[in-house]
Design goal:
single chain, mainly alpha, 3-stranded antiparallel β-sheet, two-stranded antiparallel ribbon, 5 strands, elongated
């Protein structure tokens, strides 16, 4: 690509091939000639690398901003943003918005968005996604909402995409926030959807219950673990481990 020369009384541009390194020289006046060289930088070199899980499209970013503004005004405005912007997005953008709102601890907006996602034909309930939602709710002390989500998980158990690893992460999250009842409910749900607990599941529950002084519940989990794995599973009491060291 070339830039053609332009002449006038006071200045002229020389015909020079265009590239990203330099523009043509500019000569000013006849007596005093001042040469100026302007360089153009490639802006892409200044961009910070996208973080995993945060590659938001422009449409997704604009929708998040609109949702936040609407949240400060009225419920009608929130629904208007949902109808006019969010519902028109692709699956990838919808899920990215949900995860970004959870990351930013905008739990109310995240739940509103999740309700809309559940209406989509491609939606399939998964333990891992429920785990992300529950972790954000627990982090913000919204325990009543967690009970609602757990109840909803139970209602969807016929369609629930469940993996042992996902349940283990969910159980660990609930136990870390001292939500013992919710954790045990999820443990029972795990077994009801034919997702067999592994050794790490039982060890996690026993260790957490022991640390919280729930010896009766811990003993019950131990007995159940032996029914699954017999003597091949071993539990190390934290106090015994400290003494041994």
């Amino acid at each position: 690509m070339e830039i053609w020369s332009i002449s006038c009384d006071r200045c002229r541009f020389t015909r020079t091939p265009f590239n990203l390194i330099a523009f043509p020289l500019l000569e000013v006046g006849k007596k005093d000639k001042v040469k100026m060289q302007v360089t153009m930088r490639d802006r892409s070199k200044n961009r910070k690398p996208l973080q995993k899980g945060r590659n938001l499209s422009i449409e997704a970013i604009q929708t998040i901003q609109s949702l936040k503004r609407a949240y400060k005004s009225s419920a009608d405005n929130q629904q208007q943003v949902i109808n006019s912007k969010f519902s028109r997005l692709l699956k990838f953008d919808m899920m990215a918005i949900l995860r970004e709102l959870l990351r930013q601890d905008h739990c109310v907006l995240a739940l509103m968005v999740y309700v809309e996602i559940q209406k989509e034909h491609w939606y399939k309930p998964s333990v891992s996604l429920y785990g992300e939602i529950i972790s954000a709710l627990a982090r913000n002390g919204l325990h009543d909402n967690i009970n609602i989500i757990v109840h909803e998980m139970k209602a969807e158990k016929g369609r629930l995409e469940a993996k042992t690893e996902g349940f283990n992460l969910l159980l660990e999250s609930l136990m870390s926030y001292n939500l013992i009842e919710a954790a045990l409910d999820c443990f029972e749900l795990m077994k009801s959807v034919d997702c067999e607990p592994d050794r790490s599941t039982f060890k996690l529950l026993v260790a957490q219950l022991d640390s919280k002084g729930e010896t009766g519940l811990s003993e019950s989990i131990r007995k159940e673990a032996f029914r699954y794995y017999g003597d091949s599973i071993e539990f190390v009491n934290e106090q015994e481990e400290v003494t041994a060291c």
